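Posting for a labmate who doesn't have an account.
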Amino acid sequence: MANIPNELLYTKTHEWVKKINQNEVIVGITDHAQQQLKDIVFVELPSVGKAVKAGVTCAVVESVKAAYDIYAPLSGKVTKANQIIQGKPELVNKDPYGEGWFLHIETSNPNEFNNLLSPAQYRAISESEH
């Protein structure tokens, strides 16, 4: 069973969100997502300063099986991109909630937090996919 930390928020498309402060978040993919992808071999991240829109592709992950889109959980501007995972994409598999994070977003619409899932809601979704 996947690890689903209680201090994070989630999306139906298996991204996680951690609030750093009132308007900045860290984003990555969930343990469930990395288990489904298996061996991640490449990560394409947006550039710092790029505008992202909730529900729209903002990054791409490639595994030995296929390429998958990663969707922005919130609208805003990218303030950091994790360059380390571009050189070591296996960190996403090893530590999806730590060193395997993808990007920081300065959010532009705080109301979008209402669209994110609680750990319990996400757990129900990820368990129904097994």
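Reply:
Got it, the structure tokens are right above this. The mean pLDDT is 95.
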